[in-house]
Amino acid sequence: MNLVLVCGSGTTGCHGRIEGNRAWAESLGYLVRRGVAGPGEVPVWVAGVGWRRLTADGGVEPCPPPS
Length: 67
Ligand SMILES: [Zn+2]
Known about the structure:
Oligomer: single chain
Structural class: alpha+beta
Number of strands: 3
Radius of gyration: 12 Å
Distance between the termini: 24 Å
Number of domains: 1
Largest sheet: 3 strands, antiparallel
Bound molecules: zinc ion
Shape: globular
Strand content: 15-25%
Helix content: 10-25%
Number of helices: 2
């Protein structure tokens, strides 16, 4: 299991920004459409770090940008 922790609620902070800008959030891997892909296959943009994939054991690893 793995997850990305963000601040705020559904209407405030980073969580609010994600919920209010879903296309933007999907483009950066912060939202994953149900049924599109396993979350572990979706690159996530980490500010100041780059594209990362969340591993099943709770880690992160570098990965190419989404295609
Ligand atoms: Zn935040």
